[in-house]
From TrEMBL, chain A:
Subcellular localization, as worded in the UniProt entry: Cell membrane
Membrane topology of this protein: Multi-pass membrane protein
The entry's keywords: Cell membrane, Membrane, Transmembrane, Transmembrane helix, Transport
One family name in Pfam for this protein: BPD_transp_1
Any GO CC annotation of this UniProt entry: plasma membrane
UniProt xrefs under PANTHER family: ABC TRANSPORTER PERMEASE PROTEIN MJ0413-RELATED, ALKANE SULFONATE ABC TRANSPORTER-RELATED, MEMBRANE SUBUNIT
All residue ranges annotated as the ABC transmembrane type-1 domain in the record: 81-265
UniProt protein name: ABC transporter permease
PROSITE patterns tied to this protein: ABC_TM1 (PS50928)
InterPro entries: MetI-like, MetI-like_sf
Assigned protein family: Belongs to the binding-protein-dependent transport system permease family.
GO biological process: transmembrane transport
UniProtKB/TrEMBL annotation, chain C:
Name of the molecule in the record: ABC transporter permease
InterPro entries: MetI-like, MetI-like_sf
Gene Ontology biological process terms, A to Z: transmembrane transport
Keyword check for Lyase: no
Hydrolase among keywords: no
PROSITE patterns: ABC_TM1
Family of this protein: Belongs to the binding-protein-dependent transport system permease family.
SUPFAM superfamilies from the UniProt entry: MetI-like
Length: 280, 306, 259
């Protein structure tokens, strides 16, 4: 604070106080984060190579990347990725086709909303992982198990958001539609659904990230085909670079899914208050 | 940063008798009369706050926008200064520069003759957005006490000042409520009470009544006149309401469009105490508001943006 | 008055009805997997002897508690720092985005390799999993703290430290608590997965080994206990929220009823 002295020159920007030109600012926007990543990778490399931490447990970055590159050339890995992603997609389809209509129905009347929201808020905090053993009894190991587990765990966020969205539809908009004689079905399509959209996209993002976690967790815990099983295999074999490479790949898939869903959410939210001026 | 206790050690106008601290405000003394007849002997009073060639430019290069070109004026102790300007002329930016929230690109702000660095010491501010300026997690009393806490003021003194300020604005019995349980007008009164409890050298007000309805606005204008008469505090009020600027001020500073300059300063020689009905019916009032309005309209017609 | 009673009554009606329906509908169940609820309750009492609690419940709860506490502290501290600095937020973005979208179960094998099986590994994984929701929502909350409110404090000469502690952080508190709530589910899920994969005791180990030996009653007992642990932790957080954010609940309800 003491630096904000009285200024008599015309150089200082009142908002940033800096003197960086546009080009430098653009450069630092991309380069600084990239440098941070590189620096971190270099640190890891040094720590590993110099054996500061046991090299056995923390293989060098170069070894991990090498393992990743050669792993990516095997068809087994791609089959595993395919299986996990298939479970994710199928699970999400079921989640959407149950969560959206049921959530909207529950939110449509204030009685059903009041009756269900506490229960649902509670159900969502109960770890879905608990249901795995019972599902295992029913389905045995396989894609059915993974999909049903994904559905059970990822349904709640979307359903709850759909319910909140329906609660939040502007009554004035509904009345306007009624006054203009818009029919029931068209009202749902033209008023309710668009108003719910921001909530639905948020729910979709939450459910989508959950679903991915559970799609991978299933094969990690019980085996079968999938990324989780591949990780477990690498761990059992004791191939540390390969294990790290597969975890890295899983993280990257997670990142892609998260970024995709966030972009989708931003798109649908563009007109929504929460996104205005939230660009930094 | 200046702490309130440091500030009190210095010989400020508040202590030299030109403006009364509210601790003694309830006793009617000769100071009250001198505040009431401010314009006549205004020149003898010390300058409390001075803007010297203030300029603020946002951004740089081709995208640079000069919000404030060159603004200079002086506020004397106990003076009520109204600042009006056409919409979009950077009134809020000017207040931010005066308070030190924004570092001016050029020029300086002086307090009691000393250049101010950082947040201007001894300044209180009342914002237009009372809902955003009061903290919703604190009760009314805690909100009023908030700026005084951490200044080393004894707890009892602190509570006494807050209670006094709250009763000053007619809210003696809402200390235990949350601000959002009150109406808009009452919330703005709380914000004013917070400023009073702080006992500032200068009270800055950024369109404080703009989001209130007309009746409440009238009430609060009168409350402010009352507080000004009792405490003799120096007040700088920024408004877009021309009636308000004339009705409240000892002087009205009319600003130009962007880049903002001081267009004219008009002395308001209306007698005090003023009131909504009689003052606004005076020929002098009507003449003055017509003059200010003409200035503003003239500024609008040469607005480079329109 | 009546309204005050109806409110909780309607929200309690659903869970009570559900449990009752489960009890009645499952009463004559002959399915090997879906036992009558009465049998599950009996099994629960048989399974959870004091000994069993010490062996399987306590380690899990301890790892959960330690990990969660670490997550709350690091999540809030880092979240505040990132919320305050646009530059740190931008520069660390690739890292935070990567780590937070990392499906946390994927880290269990690494945790196992690096820390070995045991409560230390479980607590570390819980801490990692639960930190992100808290960190992200804290940073959002700090960033969204009202400019006018902070400016007000600045004008009044309130020191930077007090501004942070008394204005910015309280203003971010509702979002912080929302993050903590989300973190509960992440934390419990993680500790169970870690148990299932890499432990020789604990809740997750209990259910998975009961499942493998086809002891259905014990599987259900373990399942019920997991739900119970999750519920207790949620209740604790909700209670903390009520104490810390009493103002916010009323504030919100006032906003909602206002036209």
């Amino acid at each position: 604070m003491s630096t904000r002295a009285v200024v008599s020159t015309a150089s200082a920007d009142p908002r940033t106080g800096g003197m960086r030109s546009g080009a430098v600012r653009r450069w630092s926007r991309w380069a600084e984060p990239a440098l941070v990543v590189l620096a971190l990778a270099a640190c890891w490399q040094a720590v590993s190579v110099l054996d500061v931490l046991p090299r056995e447990d923390f293989p060098p970055v170069t070894a991990i990347l090498q393992a990743l590159v050669s792993d990516l050339q095997t068809s087994e890995l791609w089959a595993a990725v395919g299986a996990s992603m298939e479970a994710w997609v199928l699970g999400m389809l079921v989640v959407v086709s149950i969560g959206v209509p049921v959530g909207m129905l529950l939110g449509a009347s204030s009685i059903s909303y009041r009756m269900s929201y506490l229960t649902l808020e509670f159900v969502r905090t109960i770890p879905g992982i608990a249901a795995l053993p019972i599902l295992l009894f029913i389905y045995g190991i396989g894609q059915d198990l993974t999909v049903s587990f994904v559905v059970l765990a990822a349904l709640w966020p979307l359903l709850i958001q759909a319910m909140y969205g329906m609660r939040d539809v502007d009554p004035v908009a509904i009345e306007t539609a009624k006054v203009y004689g818009v029919g029931h079905i068209r009202r749902v399509l033209l008023v309710d659904l668009p108003s719910c959209l921001p909530y639905l996209s948020t729910g979709l993002r939450l459910s989508g990230t959950f679903a991915l976690i559970f799609a991978i967790a299933t094969s990690l815990i019980v085996g079968g085909e999938g990324l989780g099983a591949e990780m477990a295999r690498a761990a059992v074999v004791g191939d540390r670079p390969l294990l790290y490479a597969r975890v890295l790949l899983t993280g990257l898939i997670g990142l892609v899914v998260a970024l995709g869903l966030t972009t989708l959410e931003r798109r649908t939210l563009r007109w929504h208050v929460s996104q205005r001026g939230a660009q930094s | 940063m200046m702490r309130a206790s440091d500030r009190d050690d210095r010989p400020t106008p508040t202590e030299s008798g030109f403006a009364m601290p509210i601790a003694t405000a309830s006793e009617p003394t000769s100071e009250q009369n001198s505040a009431a007849t401010a314009p006549r002997n205004a020149q003898e009073r010390p300058v409390v706050l001075e803007a010297r060639h203030l300029g603020v430019t946002y951004g740089r290069g081709r995208s640079a926008v000069t919000a404030i070109g060159d603004v200079s004026f002086q506020a004397r102790a106990g003076e009520f200064l109204s600042i009006v300007g056409p919409s979009g002329c950077g009134k809020t930016t000017l207040l931010k520069a005066l308070s030190g929230l924004l570092r001016p690109t050029t020029g300086e702000v002086r307090v009691n003759g000393t250049p101010a660095s950082g947040v201007t010491p001894g300044v209180a501010m009342v914002f237009q957005e009372y809902t955003r300026s009061l903290m919703p997690w604190q009760k009314v009393r805690a909100n009023v006490e908030f700026p005084l806490r951490g200044t080393g003021l004894p707890k009892r003194e602190l509570a006494a000042r807050a209670a006094k300020a709250l009763s000053e604005v007619g809210l003696a019995d809402v200390g235990d409520k949350y601000p959002w349980q009150l109406s808009g007008g009452m919330q703005q009164r709380v914000a004013i009470a917070r400023a009073l409890a702080f006992q500032p050298n200068v009270l800055l007000m950024d369109e404080p009544f703009a989001s209130l309805d007309a009746q409440v606005r009238g009430d609060l204008e009168d409350l402010l006149l009352h507080v000004h008469a009792r405490t003799g505090m120096t007040i700088i009020l920024v408004t877009h309401d021309i009636d308000e600027s004339v009705y409240l001020g000892d002087r009205v500073i009319a600003l130009s469009h962007r880049p903002t300059r001081v267009r004219t300063t008009i002395d308001v020689d209306l007698p005090r105490p003023r009131d909504q009905i009689h003052t606004k019916a005076l020929g002098g009032f009507i003449d003055l508001r017509t003059r200010v309005l003409e200035l503003i309209v003239a500024e609008r017609s040469v607005d480079p943006d329109s | 008055m009546i309204k005050k009673l109806i409110g909780p009554a309607t929200s309690l009606a659903a869970p009570v009805t559900l449990v009752a329906a489960w009890w009645i509908l499952s009463a004559g169940s002959t399915s090997p997997y879906f036992l009558p609820l009465s049998d599950i309750v009996d099994g629960f009492q048989q399974t959870w002897t004091t000994e069993r609690m010490e062996d399987d419940l306590l380690p899990t709860v301890r790892a959960l508690g330690v990990g969660f506490a670490v997550a709350v502290v690091t999540g809030i501290a880092t979240g505040v720092a990132l919320g305050l600095s646009a530059r740190a937020r931008r520069d660390l973005r690739p890292i935070t985005e990567f780590l937070r979208s990392m499906p946390v179960v994927a880290l269990v094998p690494i945790g196992l390799v690096v820390l070995g099986p045991g409560q230390r590994m479980e607590a570390a994984l819980v801490a990692f999993a639960a930190t992100w929701p808290i960190l992200v929502s804290t940073s959002d909350g700090v960033r969204a703290a009202d400019r006018v409110m902070i400016d007000t404090a600045r004008v009044y000469g309130v020191s930077a430290r007090r501004r942070l502690l008394r204005v910015t952080i309280p203003a971010a508190m509702p979002q912080v608590m929302a993050g903590v709530r989300i973190a509960v589910a992440a934390a419990v899920g993680t500790v169970i997965v870690a148990n299932m994969l890499a432990s020789s005791s604990g809740l997750g180990y209990l259910v998975i080994s009961a499942q493998q030996s086809f002891d259905i009653q014990e599987t259900w007992s373990g399942l019920l206990m997991i739900g119970l642990v999750g519920s207790v932790l949620t209740c604790t957080v909700v209670l903390a929220e009520r104490v810390l954010l009493g103002w916010h609940r009323q504030y919100r309800s006032l906003e909602r009823t206002a036209p």
